[in-house]
Amino acid sequence: MNEQLIEIHDLYVNYKIYEGILKVLNGVEFRVGVKEKVGLIGESGCGKTTTMRSVMRILADNAIVPKGSILYKGRDILKMSEEEIQRIRRESISMIFQDPTAALNPVFTVGDQLMDVIKYSTKENLTKEEMKERAIKVLKEVALPDPERILKNYPIMLSGGMRQRICIAMALVSANELLIADEPGTNLDVTIQDQILRLIGRLVEERGTSIILISHALGTVKGLVDRVYVMYAGNMVEVAPTKELFSEPIHPYTIGLFKTVPKLTGGGIPEAIKGRIPDYINPPQGCRFFPRCEHAMPICKKEKPSLKSVGGGHEVACFLYE
Amino acid sequence: MVEGEILVVEDLRKYFKTAQGVVRAVDGISFSIKEGETFGLVGESGSGKSTTAFTIMGVYEPTGGRIFFKGKPLIGGVKKRPLSLKKDMQMVFQDPGSSLNPRKSIREIIELPLKVHKLYRGKERKRAEELLRMVGLPVEFLDRYPRAIGGGEKQLVAIARALATEPSFIALDEPTSALDVSMQAKIINTLLRIQEELNLSYLFITHNLSLMRNVASRVGIMYLGKLLEVAPASEFFHKPLHPYTKMLLSSVPVITEEEEKLKPKKIVSRGEIPSPVNVPPGCTFHPRCPECMEVCSKKEPVMIEIEPGHTVKCHLFNS
Question: What is the largest CA-CA distance in chain A?
Fold first, then answer.
């Protein structure tokens, strides 16, 4: 096992809303090693983005973190001063957001925005020409044609795929250690999504950065990452090396989820999971999956299962395997 | 007109005038849908799938071409169509959040088409209950409002509403693309069960090829307003012919090894869809095509039948 870069331990995150308190993250355990590629999958509303926003410390104003720790190289991000976390965001960890249109400022040119990122990501005193040179270099890295012209363009003048490439370029400037990609291709067409994912894969490989790839489209993480976490209703329910997870999932939720995905080979779509994701104001006690689980036992209602190893880096949070 | 065909589309065109020029959203497509079958239209965004459905339904008046429904030509847009025809053709939209009126209860939403078409008079309530049961929702939902139910349940209400007038044809425009896979499974299975029970014909639009494989009996692939390939679903996925079809298939994210084997290996996706205002000359796909030849940028290929029911529009087969 190599050195750990990010270690999330027993993390709880709540959101205060008018109707009460949404208890979203429910004791999340998550690790990324140095130069490791990790995937995070789960249905919408399961807490994937909340987990990653906690790492960047960019949670919404109504979020409360009652418990837990997020260690970055052994130091707790949640306890850092504002200056320290900003330095990490500038120099070490960066995030690509789901919607490239919302992530870019419509009233500044691509060049202005990209050069701003470059300026603050380094301690060197760069001249305008040097910054432009670096901007052009990074745009070339993300395979954008005619970077000189693109620097002068406003985001609205570019297609969705090109905007996402610019977001990747901006993230790459400051992602020296970890790149968090939150559904980087979901809003795009499959052929463009495929290109973006291959691009991210190549760049991460070349630069030796770690990556966390978040997706609700299960297939997208398969080709890119070493290890995959499966999340359900604020908990990590299973984690395994990619190949093993996709060929031998063991948590009832993961098994159901994989069955439900339509296959290119045909044969219909089984309805493997009944019901829907729980209400976060009054989540079920014990295992949050038990109301939908066909193997539910009396203990599942009372106690919350924790991630236990079943060997070979495969861990599962389920009483069936204890 | 062949026996058993409920809908025939011939050389359908729909152009839009914009400030940048004329957009040929649908540019001369022909296909037919048999009674009781699901015809799937696949394509990336901006390929004209939804415009095709909207033009068939009469939301837009076609710029050219003909549409026949049950042997009779459909003329003009929705205003010129008789009520009895509208009763027979229904539509389910992509976003159930915006296709249901937030100020009406589920009961009012489902009873509205009954009132418009003067059906089940005096028994609207019973019919609404029956429709909810048909799509697998509890009857208590009738007095709720759209905001009080989940996204997938809203889509089931939209399906119940489409079924209210006992149509024989339903156009489904990306009915599950906003939903999670577990809800998608429920909706697709409900649609397929109802199709069997009522012998419905579907026009199913999606950008998700894996979903299409499990839903459609025949599939047409659209690119920049044109159909590039039409084939029976099983053949489409095992023997794709058009380079664009192969590129799409090789880009699909899959989760099992069996699926991985189905994907064409050699073709890697590249390029982006050009602007529909400035469509490339010749074959519209040639700038992205890995097998582009000289003729492709000059002459538009014609649609030819390779095997019965399997047609393709590509110079590779136009020798």
Answer: 68
pLDDT in tens, A90-117: 989 999 988 888 899 999 999 999 999 9
Per DSSP, the three-state class of B7 is: strand
pLDDT tens figures, A266-292: 888 888 888 888 889 999 999 999 999
Reported ipTM: the value is: 0.83
| Spatial separation of the C-alpha atoms in residues B154 and B147, rounded to whole Å | 9
Cα A115 from Cα A106, distance rounded (Å): 15
Whether the CB-CB separation of A67 and A3 falls below 8 Å is answered with no
Mutation target to probe the B interface, by most B beta carbons within 10 A, among A43, A164, A269, A277 is: A269
pLDDT digits (tens, 9 = 90+) for A38-78: 999 998 889 999 999 999 999 999 999 999 999 999 999 99
Q: How far does B119 lie from chain A, in Å, by closest CA?
A: 34
Q: Are A55 and A64 in contact (CB under 8 A)?
A: no
Residue A245 exposed, middle or buried by CB count within 10 Å (0-12, 13-18, 19+): buried
Contact state of B255 with A159 under an 8 Å Cβ cutoff:
no
Fold of B5-317: Rossmann fold (3.40.50)
pTM assigned to the model: 0.88
- Backbone torsions φ then ψ of B8, nearest 5 degrees: -125, 130
Residue A120, min C-alpha distance to chain B (Å): 32
User: What is the number of alpha carbons within 13 Å of residue A281 lying toward its C-beta?
Assistant: 6
